[in-house]
Queue: 2 jobs
Job 1
Amino acid sequence: MEHLENVTGIVAALDRSNIDTDAIIPKQYLKSIRKFGFGENLFDAWRYLDHGEPGQDHSKRPLNPDFVLNQARYRDTRILLAGDNFGCGSSREHAAWAFRDYGIRVIIAPSFADIFNGNALKNGLLPVVLDETTVARLIKSVEENEGYILTIDLPSQRVITPDGEVFNFEIDAFRKHCLINGLDDIDMTLTHADEIHAYETRRREEAPWLFTDL
Amino acid sequence: MSAETLYDKLWNSHVVREEEDGTALLYIDRHLVHEVTSPQAFEGLQKNGRGLWRTATNLAVADHNVPTTDRAAGISDPISKLQVDTLDNNCAVFGVTEFDMLDPRQGIVHVIGPEQGATLPGMTVVCGDSHTSTHGALAALAFGIGTSDVEHVLATQCILQRKARNMRINITGKLPERVTGKDLILAIIGQIGTAGGTGHAIEFAGPAIRALSMEERMSVCNMAIEAGARSGLIAADDTTIDYLKGRPFAPSGELWDRAVENWRTLTSDDDAKFDVEIEMDATNLKPQVTWGTSPEMVVSVDGHVPDADTIDDPARRDGYRRALEYMGLEAGTSIFDISPDKVFIGSCTNSRIEDLRAAAAIVDGHKVASGISLAMVVPGSGLVKKQAEEEGLDKIFIDAGFSWREPGCSMCLAMNADRLEAGERCASTSNRNFEGRQGHGGRTHLVSPAMAAAAAVHGHFVDITEI
Ligand code: SF4
């Protein structure tokens, strides 16, 4: 996983609640068997005026000029502000991959759906929870100030505004450690292989019906 | 020992180790695999030269991309075909048991797990699909995972997770005739909202839940994720045990007796503490119909499309406005006056034999209304289809003008050829009415199977408790 420590960059705002994974990456792009190449289809149905299909040359498709990420001032967006329950819907990790491929590294919202939250953290994408009032204020600042930039400092768990205002956020110590060091979950778990074996041995005794081979 | 909830019991019996911050390494008993979220996981294993931790506990099936007509002709869309072929190939290479597209047992992953007895009470069950919550109906701790976790489970038989909080939704009373588990879960989501269960495991309890059949319980737990909860749970009882007896992968003989003895303990202790408790009365519940683009945007069939202007909260008001515009609906419209163009009976929420029976009972002797351009029934599995045909349900549907299809996800998410065109309206028994879910620009109304069937026959929504 690509490590993540500090992000300073352009902020864009999508001021709506319940942004679901179907909106983040529509299902036709889930047919890919690759882990990369989803960036140009991030928010596909909102971003383009036509209906897209995989394999198309997306650079030739008509853009929706009203969609925030299509506006020149947001071209280099690295941080996204959004409404609550962000990432609800399906478990598709393609949603996290699409942000990563697009270049967005941080999403700030009042709340995230559980599965999306986990998927993001495993792909170097940081979900930051700030309260609703703060998010609303930040959204206002973004809209009023072209080129608005935030800094997200993961080690100190702070969001810092251009005026030097600071908002603290929470993150699990374990996940923070993995993100900062870009660690691979599987490698780490396999260091505990003995404990997994011991668990299996005990459970086979206790509940053998769980171990019938398919 | 202190009193435990069902979720506590399932969680505690699967913790292999715990980090200081509470992140647990949780052992996974059953892993279900499908073609959409697994290719990158198998590729990851291959790249890193890793094998499977416990091959014989994985069960794979192709369901999302498969055509629902003329199976033998194969998949015409080359990209879908590649994805399904990739699954077949990965299963062959890694030795994973797979029901391929032509296997009579093939079907939607969340239908075949319980049907085969591959999901059992007391298990942890995961799948790269959010509707894995379905399996919680069997008192299993079941939740959806992303592709990184699919790879992690394949390689280690574990996942890393923090424990969720406990929520119990207690349903008192008794559901009226023809009002189903689907209506109940839609009403629950209408009440607590699509984020109401975020961070929680929801246990559905109370007399109205106890009275539900196993299949209806699955419909309820299926949509726990639509209430924001990764897992829905229902305690084990006779209904659970009777359902599992004799299923192909369920234990038998002495092992069965030992298992049943254990399963009887899979309930929340009387004095167990829940972080959140909610109570609802089922007695006067009406069939539910969604009007918007989120499952929480739901009303009773005798209700009306709401007026966004009456909503105080600005974010919600905006959401309502956008939904009404997308759905092409005017505030105040009676639900009875909404006429679908298409009707879809299927999906992991409502494609089991009881669902098809309920729909067929409404359709029997009638014709699909002239305004409906397509009404389709997509059984949840090959075995459901076979059973329905033995009971003559296919005839009832076909005689009425329905299209009778091969099993798969189909128009639930329109990854195959079955989809809505822009602006088309659908009465659907699936679980998501998000923008574009059933096709770009398509408009979805979520309902129960009998309600969908009635809409097909009448050409608009009707109250099936009144006809
Ligand atoms: S039927 Fe629909 S919700 Fe269920 S697994 Fe298939 S696509 Fe997902």
Job 2
Amino acid sequence: MIRMDELRRQFEAGRLSRREFTNGLVTLGLSLSAANGLLVAPAKANETPKKGGRLRVGSLQASPAETLDTHAALSSIDAMRGMQIYSQLVQTTSNLEVVGELAESWEANKAADEWVFKLRKGVEFHDGRDFGAKDVVYSIRRMQDPKTGSPARSFLADIEEVVAEDAHTVRMKLSNANVGLPSVFAEYHMKMYADGWTDFNNPIGTGPFKLKSFKPGIRSVTERNPNYFKNGLPHLDEVELFSIPDTTARTSAFLAGEIHLMEDIDPTTIDLIDQAPGVEVVSVPTALYVPFSMNIEVPPYDNPDVRLALKLLIDREKYVQIVYKGHGTIGNDHPISPAYPEHCADLAPQEYDPEKAKSLIKKAGYENHTFELNGSEGLQGGMNTALTYSEMAKAAGINVKVIRNPADGFWDTVWMQKAFFGSAWNMRPSADVILTTVFFSEAPWNECRWKRPEFDKLLIEARRTFDHAKRQEMFCEMQRMIKDDGGSVIPAHGNLLDARSSKVKGLVPHPMGSLGYYQFGETCWLDS
Amino acid sequence: MATLLVRRLLSGLVTLWAVSVLVFAGTEILPGDIVSATLGQSATPEVLAAMREELGLGRPAAVRYFEWMSGFVQGDLGTSLALNRPVAELVGERVWNTFLLTALTALFAVPLSIGLGLLAVAFPRGFVDNTISLSSLIAISLPEFFTGALLVVVFAVNLGWFPAMSYVPETASWGTRLHALVLPTVTLTLALMAHAIRMTRATVLDVMQSAYVEMAVLKGVSKGRIILRHALPNAFGPIANVIALSLGYLVTSVVVVEAVFAYPGLGRQMVDAVATRDPPLVQAIAMIFCIVYVVVNLLADLVALAANPRIRMPK
């Protein structure tokens, strides 16, 4: 029997290929995603970061509507620029543990409906003004203002009052208790602007880089902030960020060495990039999911037997292989993947039982029914997700017909409009946020119309439970309810797939977003 | 002659108008609008309604079209919905990039394709003709995105002679900029030449079979003199048309090639504008492309007129 550290040693000595290494781990009983997860963090501690250089990055986003007002950001490239220019109260580690940035410490009252944040002293904005409590108050109120158009507004809906108690203390009162409030401030929109600042063509922040030039949809250049509040960071002199929406063009630019980091690679090119010299695939398990969701208010999806049958027919191992080339985690029909600390490891995985699926459909009286599944090329994984699912259904003798919808207008005309449709949800800062957004009875995006008062009660109760074990129990129960009864089929969670040149060191992978949750600029350095 | 010119001009204007209606209808037919495209999944019905109200999208399509039209004829390209900035300004930032790329291509492609076309005529059905015909047939059959990707793999990724990404900031030297433009220019030149060579060859060969050329051959005039002095002037009108058609074709190819080489020109801007559902921007760029097409064809007609007295002075 081979042992894990032996495998790792061989891999690092270059004797095993990536594929052999992960396969070895899988035979040891690790899930493939966990094996991939072990691979992404081989940063060797003994290397001293080199100063200087210009890091060139290619993003898949390109829009004339790109903005430096990160409160209203809509795309990953906005998020990347935001992480360079501004800072937040807190960030999360790759295990989603909350760590202080502009906030030094925080504390809640017993009821978890009043919070006090103590701010770091001596932090300066790019133009030299001091950062303090009034800036935090301004920024939070600005995100709450509907006129700002911030997608993060709903995360802050429960903050009734935010006041500066003194120059470096902020007090917040919540209308509903929430023990998880700090992790909300780790979401990428939550940038702290200078009090009253509105000139986003000339942004000032407290982030690791200052803006040098910016052309929406084309390119931006930022340069090191010498007064950054974290000592010794950033290592780089400059970050140059390009919009290269065409995947082939982005891949070519990357392989030709014109960009060091590439956001989002096509899963079908993984092997090619793996074999190319001097570059590496960065595959990071996340909780992002592409479900097949049903409107459970209409037949046949109102029948729990039908819902269960549509979940039982998937060979999930095979699904992850086909759709994500193995770069994914097996899903359990609820959104809380192992990337969330609230993931319930005790919950049994959904079975693969085509026979049972068939008999359940028969029992429900839909033996000859054609289930019309609406997919789209625009969803992560493209049409592969729906087509693979439909093939697996065929093997179980269930007829799932896939309808191809254009990516344009999908969210407007198909999503939540049809009875059975594909969808996509990014990982959120906490399990509470994703459950509140998609599974709470009154949520506007409750895409399955799955309304269960007992679930709502648990969710609200968990928000005021400080006791970790109790809270975890509640989250387990919620995951079980969604898995057994919910209207979403969640076969897998595809990994975040980016690529980096071997010259780039210090990239810290993060499950919540590409290239270290867009924070690559702060920690990366270039090895010549 | 004058009436003919006026007629051509008028038909050009009608074409422009028809295209503007088609493009507007096209952006209307597309599912979703700027609001749903911008907000995507994060749109709630209230936010959607509020934003549509603010942008005036609730009004009938005909009203919006005539508003745009009346602005356009007065030289006002309107305001981008996505950015709330004048379209003229946005387009202005990109139009020179595209102009540079197309001008460079035309500079190489036009003389080369006429030259090679004539060469093929000079040695018909021989090795030269076959080689030229076969390679132009291959070039015609390969779409630009493929040729472009192929050139990138060989000359950017493997050999590293030229960059794969053609964007260079305006502040860079002309040498750097031209170096970055080599691959997209070659891609476009190949596509353009393939068409132009074949059409030049066909037109001149056609003239070569006429009675007066046969007469010249019988009189013992040299081959080069026949082609250059007798056949070419008569083929000039058709060749001008070939060039016009090719340049029109160039304007559409540039959309694809700009995407492949991540080059920030009008073509890529149009693709991005369609994705964000920004009708004023789409409309303006479509009109620019259309105007180029119409003007180039008009010029070709003029050249044909100048070269051919039979059309210039109808009986």
